[in-house]
Design brief:
Layout: E1 2-8, H1 12-21, E2 25-29, E3 40-43, E4 46-49, H2 60-69, E5 74-78, E6 81-85, E7 88-91, H3 103-120, H4 131-156, H5 168-171, H6 177-185, E8 197-201, H7 207-213, E9 219-222, E10 226-230, E11 235-238, E12 243-251, H8 255-261, E13 262-263, H9 267-274, E14 298-300
Parallel strand pairs: 1-2, 1-12, 2-9, 6-14, 10-13
Antiparallel strand pairs: 3-4, 5-8, 6-7, 10-11, 11-12
Helix pairs in contact: 3-4, 3-6, 8-9
Length: about 300
């Protein structure tokens, strides 16, 4: 079979690309269902998502698009998230709710932040390029030591000095000096971050979005895991032995896997792929036989007591 553009992977990225390409695209998905890590499944009476996915729209055009795909299905939620800190739940973001912390920790976090803010005004101070230094530069030693450093070490599984800060600029909210003082005294109006409000499908889980993207404007083949890509012959071979020819290719497969299955790459490129680092995520979905907690949408676990984050 052939298509001018071959898209590998029917997650949100692959499906969105194919939707834009229309009839030019052929999509190959290894799983039997679409969505990648943004899909839902049922077990008995339970509906599970593959990890947590929420919709928080930074661009109005994207919000309109998703609204058209899921008309009257999106429900608006105000975030109810917490940090499990020293045996109790503290409202998230941690830095916006210092008043809920033990007095000694609250004072350490407040003073550390104000010292860091004061240092920023010194001549020659330049925001650092690595995440470990970025945390201390913006938040000071207290917030860094009690939450941001242990939580991010647990989540990223690499030294924080190895991470850049391009993602942190929008994902980690940095309060002002006045806001941090309000956070230490208990201002109930303080709320910030990129997802204080989010949207989620009324029924069917987050997988409804991928299902809506998988329309009939392109050819979709599920259960077709690509095991070889011959660049010279512009041919992809699946585990079932089927061959798909293409003019161009869009891959959403993990980069390490993509480089491993490509024939015709230079030895240096293939070798470079073997050296790439990545973090795998293990997801446990648990169905309770009794009513569970209804208050939290999610909880952060920075402490060492628990292996999950």
């Amino acid at each position: 079979m052939s298509g001018s553009v071959l898209v590998i992977g029917a997650g949100l990225t692959g499906l969105s690309a194919a939707r834009e390409l229309g009839g030019e695209a052929v999509v190959l998905e290894a799983s039997r269902s679409v969505g990648g890590l943004c899909r839902s499944y049922t077990r008995g009476e339970y509906l599970f998502d593959i990890s947590g996915h929420l919709l928080h729209f930074r661009r109005p055009a994207i919000r309109r698009l998703v609204g058209s795909l899921l008309p009257r299905q999106l429900v608006r939620h105000e975030r109810r998230a917490y940090v499990f800190f020293r045996g109790k739940l503290v409202d998230y973001p941690f830095q916006a709710n210092l008043y809920q912390l033990p007095e000694k920790v609250r004072r350490e976090c407040l003073e550390g932040f104000l010292e860091a803010e004061d240092r920023k005004s010194w001549a020659g101070q330049v925001p650092p390029g690595d995440f470990a230094s970025w945390i201390r530069y913006h938040f000071g030693s207290g917030i860094a030591r009690h939450f941001l450093e242990p939580y991010n070490r647990k989540m990223w599984q690499v030294p924080l000095g190895d991470l850049d800060t391009s993602w942190a600029e929008w994902a980690v909210p940095v309060p002002t000096g006045e806001e941090i003082k309000a956070a230490a005294t208990g201002d109930p109006t303080l709320s910030f971050g990129y997802n204080p409000v989010f949207f989620y499908p009324r029924e069917g889980g987050i997988g409804r979005l991928a299902e809506a993207l998988a329309d009939e404007s392109f050819r979709l083949h599920t259960g077709e895991k690509v095991v070889e890509i011959d660049i010279a012959r512009r041919k992809a071979v699946t585990a079932r032995g089927r061959r798909f020819f293409f003019e161009k290719i869009v891959s959403t497969a993990p980069l390490t896997e993509l480089l491993r299955i490509c024939k015709g790459l230079s030895p240096s490129m293939a070798e470079a792929g073997e050296g790439l680092r990545y973090v795998s995520v293990c997801v446990f979905n648990v169905g309770l036989s009794r009513p569970g907690p209804t208050a939290p949408h999610w909880i952060y676990f920075p402490g060492r007591t628990y292996p999950f984050y």
